[in-house]
Task: inverse folding
């Protein structure tokens, strides 16, 4: 008898949640998201501009480096494979 009840409970657990349960879960998710968003701290405009500037500088530096390496390797291959 206990096995039948266990199987029935497992089958009910596997069944998809009702629309009401889904709406409640969705609502709870947004409530928790709202609470978490209040904990977020955003950088100041000065910090954002400094970070952005450093990223642009490093990307430019890497692009120039890779361009130089590409040209050098192209010249080497032109010499090896005429």
Result:
């Amino acid at each position: 008898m206990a096995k039948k009840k266990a199987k029935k409970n497992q089958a009910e657990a596997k069944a998809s949640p009702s629309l009401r349960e889904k709406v409640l879960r969705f609502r709870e998710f947004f409530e928790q998201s709202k609470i978490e968003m209040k904990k977020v701290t955003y950088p100041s405009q000065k910090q954002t501009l400094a970070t952005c500037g450093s990223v642009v500088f490093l990307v430019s530096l890497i692009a120039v480096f890779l361009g130089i390496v590409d040209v050098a390797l192209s010249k080497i291959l032109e010499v090896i494979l005429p």
Q: What stands out?
A: The radius of gyration is 30 Å. Residues 45-80 form the longest helix (36 residues). Residues 1-40 form one domain. The chain has two domains: 1-40, 42-82.
